[in-house]
Write a structure and sequence with these properties.
Strand content: 15-25%
Shape: flat
Low-confidence stretches: 1-14
Distance between the termini: 28 Å
Radius of gyration: 13 Å
């Protein structure tokens, strides 16, 4: 039996969610709406393949299928890209 968090991420569009490794990765956002998902590797539900990660990826995939959407989805490892965590007052993950 496959548990929901074990579903391969290959079913998602490769670029529906982009990982942010540096605050400058967001410079291409311009005037588009952006959704940032702050996560931590020690928190299994938010880490890659976790339940929250799968929900976020599904949301991004659904939005990317709508031709009128101009929303970008990004995953931010909160402790690695701490400049963004501070900028958006992220103090608890998730």
């Amino acid at each position: 039996n496959i548990k929901p968090y074990e579903i391969p991420l290959l079913i998602m569009t490769a670029n529906a969610v982009q990982d942010v490794t540096n605050p400058s990765d967001l410079t291409r956002v311009n005037n588009k709406k952006s959704v940032l998902f702050f996560w931590a590797p020690w928190h299994q539900p938010s880490s890659p393949g976790g339940q929250m990660d799968l929900v976020f990826r599904t949301l991004a995939e659904t939005a990317s299928k709508q031709s009128s959407t101009d929303t970008l989805f990004f995953r931010v490892e909160a402790e690695v890209v701490n400049q963004l965590s501070r900028k958006y007052d992220v103090s608890i993950v998730p």
